[in-house]
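Q: Sequence in, structure out?
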Amino acid sequence: MNLFKRLLAASGAAALLAGLGGATQAFAANPFTAQIALGCVDSNQNQTITVTATSQALVHIEVTVGGSTVNGGTQNGTGVPNSSGVFTDTWKVAAVTTATTAQVRIYVFTIDGVAFGTGTFQINPVGSPCPSPSPVTITGSFPEVLQVGGDVKKTCDAGVTGNATFSAMIQVKADGVPVTTVTLPAEANLTLACNGEAAPLPKLPVTSVITFHEVTLPTGAAALAADTKITIGTTAATTTIHNTKKPAVVVVLPATGQPAGAPSLPWPALALLGLVAIAGAGLVLRRRS
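A: Exactly. Output:
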């Protein structure tokens, strides 16, 4: 089940889109907890971050070493929690020459909006092992900003049938300022049926942007739809993505220049179909690199 349908299943369409036009202002406390396994880790040693939330969510972890791209720099882990709501990310910490603080930022996309939490751990250089490190606990919370949802649907010309699949990238903003950009993993791709029901969008802070890229065409479609960017507004909105039909294939007779089987016309005309992408107003992720 893709991310958008997972979020819908967690609350039901009515609950997800009800009240304030799909907006969220008040949230439950502690939407997730996380643990950094080692508060101090030796260079070239494995570090693990475990996030406990809900199975109906998406987790994005950012670890910045020393505030720069040195020694591996920012590394990201993104994925969907298991059936118990647990997401675990393990990677090998790069070597440092002096004791260095790593900054951890965790984003969890839930039916109620994006939750956020931060923490740190220390990386020691080779030859200076950490003395019995303890774990670090992080408690997530929702930011004090308006978060709004919405939905997206697929329309198709007559003769175009089946499903279209979309990858997604989410740029989270707070008060219009970019906070993070998340590329959703393939397991969170969105599938929409031609002229079918709309799918809900995750609630995001106002001015955040979701970009959908069509990766699989419905049967009979002319071409991939242009990328659709949805900017989250203060009220929920429906965005429509359209696929046109392939133009008919016409066989032309070399001797006459006329279509095969067509009457002799002085100026044969062919109708050309163009691609229409309708984007409305108004939410990503690879494994750790």
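The chain has two domains: 28-139, 147-243.
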